[in-house]
């Protein structure tokens, strides 16, 4: 059925072509915005720029512990004795005005008293009772944080698309912002397929294995900014699969299936995609993960990922993750380039994702070391990997020191 059923869809396209198609599909979709409490906003993506509702700092204050005084009272040579008339600590009631010839003890962050425009740090003065003896060397206006020196009122504080990271949350609190407009997280539904699969809690019978793609894809989607709305499983039954697909597509922006995407007897998904969806492509010239299929189903974007765990992870990283970033208003996933620590070779022309570890080489450049076990069904290579190294299409052998693209696994890099 394979070749004829999907005759109208692009097939066996290159990885770069597939990336371009999914990018176009994602860019064409709406990115809804929602208003949420800042208490729940960590990690979310700001949908509109934030402008400073007031200046920050809102009042002139001292950058150091010392004595607030008038610049006009600073000696140019020798010393000058000023009369200590009060104290201004952070959070305390206002100290008296600093008249000529007087000063006020001040601590870091405390508001500059009226009349004062300069702070002499305590290491530069001697105090004898009520007399503060100031030496030369303090510049006019020194050690004062001016109103608005951090942000002027009305200045752009955070740009749209900014991750609400700890620094951004600190700014929101400083400006008294309690609610923010953020991109709604893309909703992802996951359907694992296969008669041989049982849940993790079950004991596998003859020829059965536990479903590991469900939790893996859920974790990958969540780490890519998605809200995982369902993780379900269905056996290799066309009717039940179709029902599940429709139900899940109705609740998600992106539907991920695993398994059943190739040309085996139990691989039902390409045919279902053709009958009930709009197939964007089927099969990409990559290893692992060649059978991956992308289609529209209802209003959702559907990625039928291959069942082998490493294939599912690689196709997710290469094709799904950029879409989730785009739908969620995030910057595209970080693409890195690294130096191969060892020579690699392959016996086919497809692009290949190697499981491996990205780290810092002796020359301070990023280095990628491929793992010894690269079987697409082997979880061991995936478990120790922190990234996938992409050996480009066409290349059969790359010498140590070659620079390749590396796709970091989420949680390591944004
Ligand atoms: P398929 O793409 O359905 O032909 O599956 C390819 C291989 O991946 C088979 O060995 C399946 O048993 C295995 N597989 C499929 N789905 C899963 C899953 N959810 N968890 C673990 N292994 C799976
Ligand atoms: Mg299967």
Features:
alpha/beta; Molybdopterin biosynthesis moea protein, domain 2; Molybdenum Cofactor Biosythetic Enzyme, Chain A; Molybdopterin biosynthesis moeA protein, domain 3; 29 strands; 32% strand; binds adenosine monophosphate; binds magnesium ion; 414 residues; 4 domains
Shape: elongated
First CA to last CA: what distance? 40 Å
Molecules bound to protein: adenosine monophosphate, magnesium ion
CATH architecture of the largest domain: 3-Layer(aba) Sandwich
* Structural class based on helices, strands and sheet pairing: alpha/beta
The named CATH superfamily of the largest domain? MoaB/Mog-like domain
Number of helical regions: 8
Number of domains: 4
Strand content: 25-35%
| CATH topological fold name of the largest domain | Molybdenum Cofactor Biosythetic Enzyme, Chain A
Radius of gyration, CA atoms, in whole angstroms: 31 Å
| Low-pLDDT stretches | none
Sheet of most strands: 7 strands, mixed
Can you tell me the CATH class of the largest domain?
Answer: Alpha Beta
Helical content class: 10-25%
Mean pLDDT, nearest integer?
95
């Amino acid at each position: 059925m394979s070749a004829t059923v999907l005759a109208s869809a692009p097939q066996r396209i290159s990885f770069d072509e597939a990336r371009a198609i999914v990018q176009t599909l994602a860019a064409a979709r709406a990115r809804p915005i929602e208003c949420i409490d800042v208490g729940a906003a960590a990690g979310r993506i700001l949908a509109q720029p934030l402008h400073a509702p007031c200046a920050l700092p809102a009042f002139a204050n001292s950058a150091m512990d010392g004595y607030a005084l008038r610049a006009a009272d600073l000696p140019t040579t020798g010393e000058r004795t000023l009369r200590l008339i009060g104290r201004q600590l952070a959070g305390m009631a206002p100290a008296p005005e600093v008249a000529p010839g007087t000063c006020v003890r001040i601590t870091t962050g405390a508001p500059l008293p009226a009349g004062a425009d300069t702070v002499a740090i305590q290491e530069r003065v001697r105090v004898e009772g009520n007399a503060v003896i100031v030496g030369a060397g303090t510049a006019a206006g020194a050690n004062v944080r001016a109103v608005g020196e951090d942000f002027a009122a009305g200045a752009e504080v955070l740009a749209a698309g900014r991750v609400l990271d700890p620094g951004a949350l600190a700014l929101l609190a400083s400006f008294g912002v309690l609610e923010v407009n953020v991109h709604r997280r893309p909703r992802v539904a996951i359907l694992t397929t296969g008669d041989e699969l049982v849940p993790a809690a079950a004991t596998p019978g003859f020829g059965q294995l536990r479903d590991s793609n469900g939790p893996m894809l859920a974790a990958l989607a969540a780490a890519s900014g998605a809200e995982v709305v369902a993780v379900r499983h269905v056996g290799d039954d066309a009717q039940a699969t179709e029902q599940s697909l429709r139900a899940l597509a109705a609740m998600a922006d992106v539907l991920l299936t695993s398994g059943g995407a190739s040309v085996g007897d139990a691989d039902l998904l390409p045919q279902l995609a053709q009958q009930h969806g709009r197939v964007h492509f089927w099969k990409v010239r990559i290893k692992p993960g060649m059978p991956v299929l992308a289609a529209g189903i209802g209003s959702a974007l559907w990625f039928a990922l291959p069942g082998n765990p490493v294939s599912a992870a690689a196709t997710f990283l290469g094709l799904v993750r950029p879409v989730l970033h785009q739908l969620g208003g995030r910057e595209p996933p970080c693409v890195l380039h690294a130096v191969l620590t060892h020579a690699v070779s392959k016996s086919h022309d497809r692009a290949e994702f190697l499981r491996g570890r990205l780290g810092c080489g002796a020359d301070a450049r990023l280095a990628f070391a491929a793992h010894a076990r690269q079987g697409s069904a082997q979880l061991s290579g995936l478990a120790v990997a922190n990234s996938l190294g992409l050996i480009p299409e066409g290349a059969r052998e790359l010498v140590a020191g070659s620079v390749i693209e590396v796709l970091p696994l989420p949680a390591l890099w944004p």
